Amino acid sequence: MGFRLIVKDKKTKARLGKLTTAHGLIDTPCFMPVGTQGTVKGISPAQLEEAGAQIVLSNAYHLFLRPGIEIIKKAGGLHKFMNWQQPILTDSGGYQVFSLALLRKLSDEGVEFQSHIDGFRHFITPEEVIRIQADLGSDIIMPLDECVHYPCSRDQAEVAMERTVEWAKRSRAVVSCQLSVVREKQMLFGIIQGATYDDLRKECAARITEIGFDGYAVGGVSVGEPKNLMYNTLEFIADFLPQERARYCMGVGLPEDIIEAVAEGIDMFDCVVPTRYGRNGTAFTSAGKFIIRNAAFAQDLSALDDKCGCYTCKNFSRAYLRHLFNTEEMLGPQLVSLHNIHFYLGLMRDIREAISKDRFTEFKKGFLAGYNVKLCA
To answer: Are 274 and 47 in contact (CB under 8 A)?
Structure first.
């Protein structure tokens, strides 16, 4: 298992690679559809496979709360429970603890929190988070970390960074000393925190890479900061991450954000945007994104995106999709979500092809120029 760097773009930091996991190969740069609770909302595993998804993301926090780890263990692990036989990355749930929990109390030992579902109190440690993910059997697991929102003071960012590093050490230690199953079948990524403070990011990267992980994630981006600060962080931190390890930007993002991040040497992405936007009637197309509910599409019998070959675009018109949303038929959100997943995965294939042909810069310029066209107000 591990990451193999195949080629680097000559004009940018963009990279073409291949990540080998226990459940299959992943071509990078890649996008991971988000199946937070063991499902990508509105999309079946067969549809994901047909769209070209090579990996999906689930969330240990949500699965821990329901249905509970024991039933997933009884089913034979998360792959069998959700009937997805390709790679899975599970996030530790640290961000969800800090953003969703009703009450939470952080200490160096771990996190005490109240479930946002039933108010029940839990206490989790970095070690327990790793054991939970070992039981899930996901291919890539993430340690517990502390993520701060933007804006935050330097002191707040430094405390969170220090705690993230210490929890990373403990996570690595429990894998090295106790969990042979993780060493044999699962990869553990380290997370770089530090908010928008370059010196904290650099220090965190040095200390996390010194511990040694199978890949490295940039956390604490796309948490409310302006886009230029997010891009600056990615540009800065990439130079301090090992070339021979996969780089994962957590929670990003919109198509334009992904393209900018690829140019800075990022390999892996995840975001709820394709399905969340799809459920709300926003479609991503080769010419930009638009809201299918709008009256402009009431009599538009053209495909959602004439450059897309997905099931939605081959079979249904914009007018019909608008009708589904306006009559609150559940098929509408499913069809637009399916299209958006196809769009994102197709974008990643186009990015990989451009890097392989050493024309990523030209691709980036052409895509962004066409994508900025506004189809409607």
So the answer is: no
3-class state of residue 270 by DSSP: strand
What's residue 101's pLDDT?
65
**Using CA atoms, how far apart are residues 331 and 47, in angstroms rounded to an integer?**
14
pLDDT at 377: 34
Q: Is the pLDDT of residue 122 over 60?
A: yes
Q: Rg of the chain's alpha carbons, rounded to an integer?
A: 20
Please answer whether residues 304 and 288 qualify as being in contact, where contact means their C-beta atoms are separated by less than 8 angstroms: no
Question: What's the Cα-to-Cα distance from 141 to each of 39, 113, 182, rounded to whole Å?
Answer: 17, 21, 9
**C-alpha 151, offset from chain centre:** 22
Residue 375: pLDDT above 60? no
Phi, psi of 36 (to 5 degrees): -45, -50
- Chain mean pLDDT for the chain: 94
Question: Active-site positions?
Answer: 91, 270
Show the domains of the chain with their CATH numbers.
Answer: 2-271 (3.20.20.105), 278-371 (no CATH)
Residue 178: Cβ within 10 Å count = 14
Q: What is the DSSP string of 106-118?
A: E-SS-EEEE-TTT
